[in-house]
Predict the 3D structure of the following.
Amino acid sequence: MSLPHAILTALLEKPSSGLELTRRFDKSIGYFWSATHQQIYRELGKLEGEGLIRALPAEQPARGQKKSYEVLPAGRAELARWTAAAQDPKPLRDTLLLRLRAAAVVGTAGLEADLRRHLELHRRQLAEYEEIERRDFPPERNAPEDRLRHLVLRAGIDLETFWTQWLSHALAEFPEPPAGGETD
Amino acid sequence: MSLPHAILTALLEKPSSGLELTRRFDKSIGYFWSATHQQIYRELGKLEGEGLIRALPAEQPARGQKKSYEVLPAGRAELARWTAAAQDPKPLRDTLLLRLRAAAVVGTAGLEADLRRHLELHRRQLAEYEEIERRDFPPERNAPEDRLRHLVLRAGIDLETFWTQWLSHALAEFPEPPAGGETD
DNA sequence: ACCTGCATGTAACAGGTTACATGATTCG
DNA sequence: CGAATCATGTAACCTGTTACATGCAGGT
């Protein structure tokens, strides 16, 4: 029950068409909530049916025609309700940790290369976030309306920092020891 | 495509029935890959059909009868293959960050209480992990076959540490400022 | 006229969640 | 015998993923 609220947030920030939303879900919003265009169109239809958003009139409701949406008061109310409602944190579900645990049983052969690749990917993501921070939140301007957005970005930076450090640590004690539990 | 491999790993560590697996997915394995008993039974059926595991014979295949499974060689091979195969990290998808971004638009009313609750939950989880670390991985015994398991636990500890720190930081600059973008 | 790119969709499927159903065992 | 508990399962649904379909606009 989060995708509709992600879309409401995006549309409140700026009314958009499906494709524009898709583009924005590949960038800023997608940093913590990704979605494909198929999901977005499906959800836009639902939200419109529920009266939370409406299409801006542009005459043609035809197929290849751009169609922009804006949030209705009911949509804003629903988003505010959802934002304030108590929600339990979802338990972690991470493939890489699972693979490490599996490697303890079937052996580590071949795993190291992918760990290195992940490390490189996380380093790149971290650099990208830090670049955004430099650009959008320089130390001097600390406007209160930026605080929440900066906080979200900090979470991204800290998470990528965690992954790079943890992967470095993992790789450090990886290559040399035979690491128990081979194919027996 | 991870649940079957989580189950294979669990069964290699110790052959079990569906319910026993469910219990283990509420503890150690569930710390990074959770699953309900419905998922587990469904997946056990599939894995058996594919010849990766088999039921230990106990005469009754009846409904209320315990049924234990063990991993076949094909299952072990598949797990080794999957563990070594390259996989892209899944993009982050976090509700709390989304709610913060939404709060930047519709206002922060009511959010703070749930942030406090999350902080408390993460603190508890962190304490639990640290307790496990003290119990299972004391500094003196550093057996090589424990290394990978310890590494996985460290990831859990570091992640919970991140959340507690980030949430503390978030709450610190939260209460006082009016935080732009109220219900207008 | 044709091709490429933009834009909106449909369909089928896989994985996860929730609610419920059924049989066996144990304990009062 | 009845209730509680253990154990295995079914069914319906929701979300997310992948592959494909359709219409329009602009360039050559």
The two ends of chain A are 46 Å apart (CA to CA).
